[in-house]
Model the fold of this input.
Amino acid sequence: MSTDDAHDPKFGEYGGQYVPEALMPAIEELADAYERYVLDNEDGFMDEFRERLADFGGRPTPLQYADQLSERYDTDVYLKREDLLHGGAHKLNNALGQVLLAKYMGKERIIAETGAGQHGTATAMAAAHLDMPCEIYMGETDIARQRPNVFRMKINGSEVVPVTVGRGTLKEAISETMREWATTVENTHYVIGSVVGPHPFPKMVRDFQSVISEEAREQTIEKTGGLPTDVVACAGGGSNTMGAFAEFVDDEDVALHAVEAGGSSLTVDEEEGVAPNSATLSTGDEGVLHGARTKLLQDSDGQIMESHSVSAGLDYAGVGPELAHLVDEERVTPVNVDDDLALEAFHRLSQDEGIIPALETAHAFGYLERVAGTATDGRAAEPRDEHHEEFGDTVVVNVSGRGDKDLETAIEETTKRDLDIAPDMSMLNRMGGGL
Amino acid sequence: MGLESAFADEPAFVPYLAAGDPNYEDSLSYVEALAAGGADAIELGLPFSEPIAEGTTIQNAIVRSLDAGMTPERFFEFVSDLDVDVPLVCMTYYNLLYQYGADEGPRPFVEKAAEVGVGGFVVPDLPAEEAGPLRAACDEFGLDLVFIVAPTTTQSRLDRMREQVSGYVYVQARLGVTGARDDVDDATEESLARIADWDVPKAVGFGIKTGEHAERIVASGADGIIVGSALVDIVTEGYENGDPTGEVADRLEALARELKQGALRGTQERPQPERT
Done:
């Protein structure tokens, strides 16, 4: 558990509480509950949370040695298998924590937003498990590209509310859920899906997710006798990133790499207000969105840009304020991987290790390929700074989620591209139809 | 012109429109129609792409305005081009103020706003805790900073807000986001009672739609009413029906008149202060 000052709503200049007045009492109430139940374990909250994470969630997840990748990259690669957590992604850690907290707080109803659907699925599962009514807001674009997860939320008993404003992705869904929360704040808890939003969400979500690095740290010591040299995690809003990094932040010899979605290009179309990427840490500017000061993809007037990634789960114009701060402090190195290389890595992990990763996770492996391997199109490793000249000899990669939800997107995107590593798609395409 | 002046003689009618909705020229005529209909101050929305405090009606207005090219610079031109004789309030979200100043925070925006004649700000996503830099800039250039009191606002937060508010206090009539409603919430009177001894005027907004609503709100002790969505609905209908410019302005002026008259009627029904 983190030891930073729980009362402090800021991470350096970032963070804070920029929300409509109607929500201020709710986030003050939540900050109080966070301190009592999460930090002080009042009424045995954390004991119950850990027990449910073990029995319902399936923790601890393994730290697996990756034979083929280790050989390919000539370094020991360990996989933190959050894809094996119940629901298929790290998201359950946070969803279970927050739904349980809502119960302790006496709330009667859960609302949440989701992009890729993983957070929505995890929240729906946690709500069913803890017998709480739940509504999940999801952009219509994301509903179309994440149908299996929409179905999973519904069969777990949650309502899925389509958000039709804007481009219908995560940023619109978050705004809409905040509006709904402002209307029903007295009996409803909003389960934010990442380390974003007003204080205490970034700290609280990080703490629920820090079980990832807590286990990974112990497991690495157990398996190798020491700490890893590098930890690699993909970063959208940043919940799996902060979860994977949190317990290593004070270990200054452990390099932390946050891999963002480079999309199709890092060049921004100011005229159209579109960033064809979601590389907020690498390319964003400071600003205020969804309750926090952080780095954002925005135009010169301060209007928030539409972001893009082949992975719906990374497709967000903001990022957690703590990550923005750690990047400014040069403790975390932000890097990015484009859609093509992420897809290539998706196929490599599937073929070499028998693990079909979420497209989010594939970005982390794309970075491994670029730095330590040879990307098939011959792209050289990007220039590295002194601190991160190369990977050391023990690299832990957070496998944040499994790729079942992304198979329709993977078929479509693979078909569009000429990837040497991809399987022969002709039969699938000849036969037509979906999965 | 200080915003308090709008409340000096009688209950104030403060309408809201998104500047530039559905386009620059028509929007100018709409705002001027509100002034002709009796507005005492006007809240002009500077559209932000993520308006988390707004309901669907104003969200759509913001999208129309942004699509028609509204920017902070155009907003300043808009204020300069307006021919009205009442105080103007800029209602927007903090990121636009903040980003305008780059490394200097909100100060350059406030300086420019003062230059073109803006009288103050309402920033729905800026609570008193984070408002220090904007408050300082407003003090430097003589502008007011309005805060919103919600039915859920705690006493400790009211105390914090009271130290920083100027111009008027915006009393949110009910929980939720902006949008016209068919009734008036009882929470209004309670909210007004909690801030009765504040020495700034109290203006009630959220959900007011008719002259009768205005009358009831003022009768319950408000110093003014703020109306947005009911007016934006008229702009929306005009836009959807092919933009009949004159008729929209006429309808806005007529509703403004009805709301102002309702507010005036409300003063007759106020309980008289007890003599001691």
